């Protein structure tokens, strides 16, 4: 073959390899196709693609020209073992004119070493790391030249880049999944704890306060109308008042701890009912039906609750608007008021230390992977906007694991 023809051929090969490695295929499929292309381009008889398994610290056959493809996954070598293991360990190519004379060679019956004589083995390098090894073998003895080595190195590195990308993508997707599971478990755990507390306050403290109140009432009756009983009666009256207040507080705490409305009605009506608890300003709630996982519903409900409390406590607003919509980018919750607004940067240190509301809003949004926008300026009112992105259409069959 002339030099020009060879050069032309290698460009075409690289084009093919780029096509194969950027297609949406799994690692095995890519390895198979690359093996076939490389065998033809280097005029060899067989090609093996081994990938490094970092956990096992071994190279594992990931692709081969037929009939050896049936051994994919089963043929493995320790790093340093055999020629492929040596190349993986040293990150250097090996050109072997006669493998029987090379003491690195290790006979593997399944790969029928007896049928082949010469070989070249090159490391697949991505960002300085060996991700695999590419081997070509020929039946007849031959001298693989520099051209072959250069071409194989280019192919190996192209593949390495694609495999490394797939690996990084998979790792990222796994981490995202772990984070998502963590978020939903955290919110669930929080809610469970709140339910437990609500139950405890209800069954324990509240019940005792109720019976205390009845005892006080009975004592009050028993003292009767006698003159000297006036002090006793005054004390009993104050005690009853305290018991009533404590009971009201306990009930308030229970309502705050557990969003019953979410269980009973769902997020939209839950927000409407939140709106109805506000007094002293016009509350305009407009909700669309949205689909969200339960932990995200709870998080949005709590965010709206805190944002509305802030409006009542700080905004001096005449109107507050609550919007829940399903948009292209996700489910959007907006709470906006026309009050005094504030400058987040200039909230004083002490105030910031004792303020948990905005921090809590931010944390809840982060936990459910939502974006948060807080817009406020003194004199212009405040807007809190949270967008929960739609989940990917089909998380099980997307990119992870593909090259
Ligand atoms: N809608 C609003 N209008 C005007 N100021 C606000 C509004 N929301 C928050 N702020 C300002 O931001 C500060 C921080 O709010 P944040 O909710 O973190 O704390 P807080 O309401 O003071 O206390 P906590 O929520 O812990 O009971 C508030 O003290 C207030 O100065
Ligand atoms: Mg607050």
Task: Considering the chains and any ligands shown, give keywords for the structure.
binds adenosine-5'-triphosphate, binds magnesium ion, 403 residues, six-stranded antiparallel β-sheet, 2 domains, elongated, Heat Shock Protein 90, alpha+beta, Beta-Lactamase
Tell me the series of helices and strands, N- to C-terminal.
Answer: HHEEEHEEEHHHHEHEEHHEE
* Count of the separate structural domains: 2
What is the topology, as strand order, of the major beta sheet? Answer: 3-2-1-6-5-4
H/I helix tally: 10
* Major sheet: 6 strands, antiparallel
- Ligands (ions, cofactors included): adenosine-5'-triphosphate, magnesium ion
> What is the CATH C level class of the largest domain, in words?
Alpha Beta
| Head-to-tail CA distance between termini | 33 Å
Topology:
Blueprint: H1 3-22, H2 27-41, E1 46-53, E2 58-64, E3 76-78, H3 82-90, E4 94-96, E5 118-126, E6 129-138, H4 146-223, H5 230-257, H6 260-264, H7 267-276, E7 282-287, H8 294-315, E8 319-327, E9 330-337, H9 349-353, H10 357-367, E10 371-376, E11 382-388
Parallel strand pairs: 7-8
Antiparallel strand pairs: 1-2, 1-6, 2-3, 4-5, 5-6, 8-9, 9-11, 10-11
Adenosine-5'-triphosphate (ATP) is lined by residues 310-311, 313-315, 337, 339-342, 347, 351, 355-358, 382.
């Amino acid at each position: 073959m002339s030099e020009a023809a060879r050069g032309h051929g290698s460009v075409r090969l690289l084009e093919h390899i780029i096509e194969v490695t950027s297609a949406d295929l799994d690692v095995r499929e890519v390895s198979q196709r690359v093996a076939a292309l490389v065998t033809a381009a280097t005029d060899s008889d067989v090609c093996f693609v081994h990938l490094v398994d970092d956990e096992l610290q071994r190279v594992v056959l990931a692709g081969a020209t037929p009939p050896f493809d049936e051994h994919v996954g089963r043929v493995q070598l320790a790093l340093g073992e055999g020629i492929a293991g040596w190349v993986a360990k040293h990150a250097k190519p090996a050109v072997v004119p006669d493998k029987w004379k090379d003491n690195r060679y290790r006979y593997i019956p399944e790969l029928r070493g007896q049928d082949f004589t010469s070989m070249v083995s090159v490391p697949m390098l991505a960002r300085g790391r060996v991700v695999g090894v590419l081997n070509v073998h020929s039946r007849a003895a031959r001298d693989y030249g520099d051209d072959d080595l250069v071409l194989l190195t280019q192919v190996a590195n192209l593949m390495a880049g694609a495999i490394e990308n797939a690996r990084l993508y998979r790792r990222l997707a796994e981490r995202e999944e772990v984070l998502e599971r963590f978020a939903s478990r955290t919110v669930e755990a929080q809610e469970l704890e709140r339910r437990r507390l609500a139950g405890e306050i209800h069954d324990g403290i509240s019940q005792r306060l109720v019976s205390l109140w009845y005892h006080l009432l009975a004592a009050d009756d028993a003292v009767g109308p006698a003159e000297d009983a006036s002090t006793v009666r005054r004390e009993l009256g104050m005690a009853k008042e305290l018991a009533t207040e404590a009971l009201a507080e306990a009930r308030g705490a229970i309502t705050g701890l557990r969003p019953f409305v979410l269980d009973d009605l769902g997020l939209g009506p839950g927000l409407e009912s939140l709106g109805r608890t506000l007094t002293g300003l016009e509350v305009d709630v407009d909700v669309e039906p949205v689909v969200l996982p339960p932990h995200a519903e709870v998080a949005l409900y709590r965010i709206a609750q805190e944002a509305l409390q802030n409006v009542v406590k700080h905004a001096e607003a005449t109107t507050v608007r609550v919007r829940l919509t399903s948009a292209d980018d996700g489910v959007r919750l907006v709470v906006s008021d026309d009050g005094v607004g504030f400058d987040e940067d200039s909230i004083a240190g002490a105030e910031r230390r004792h303020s948990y509301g905005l921090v809590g809003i931010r944390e809840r949004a982060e936990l459910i992977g939502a974006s948060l926008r807080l817009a406020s300026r003194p004199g212009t009112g405040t807007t809190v906007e949270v967008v929960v992105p739609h989940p990917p259409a089909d998380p099980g069959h997307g990119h992870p694991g593909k090259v």
